[in-house]
Each structure stands twice: as structure tokens, then as C-alpha cells.
Amino acid sequence: MNSDLNFFGVFFPPMVLIAAASFVILQIVKRLMAALRLYRFVSHRNIFDISLYFIIVAGILFSFGGKTILPLFS
């Protein structure tokens, strides 16, 4: 059984969907943090944003029921 996502004949691994959703959530969080002026407490904004992205990815993967990406392929 193939666990890839079929989008008009083009197959994508499930991680692509997770990465895209994480990017959208990251953009929302970044705008919220800028509006609340929370970036003034961060010394390296780009490193913080990349770290926040990976935290969001891990949170989405963990919400699907696992510590790794393995639940996406079962």
C-alpha cells in the first residue's frame, strides 16, 4: 500500500503536507509576535524563527501519534 498523497497524478510524501502546514502556522505566529512586539526579547530573530518552525513541525508530528514521522507511513 502506497502512503503517498496523490494530487492530480503527482505523488507527494506526507511530510510535504506537514512542512507546508507548519510554514503557514509559522507565518501566523510571526505576525502575532511582531504585533505584540515580542521579538524585542529575541537576540537572533532568524535563528529563532527557524527553531520555531522545527518546533511546530515536531508538534504536528507528535499530534499525529508518534515521536517521529513513522506514524505518517503506516
From TrEMBL:
The chain crosses the membrane at residues 6-29, 50-73. Keywords: Cell membrane, Membrane, Transmembrane, Transmembrane helix. This is DUF1656 domain-containing protein. It comes from Paraburkholderia steynii.
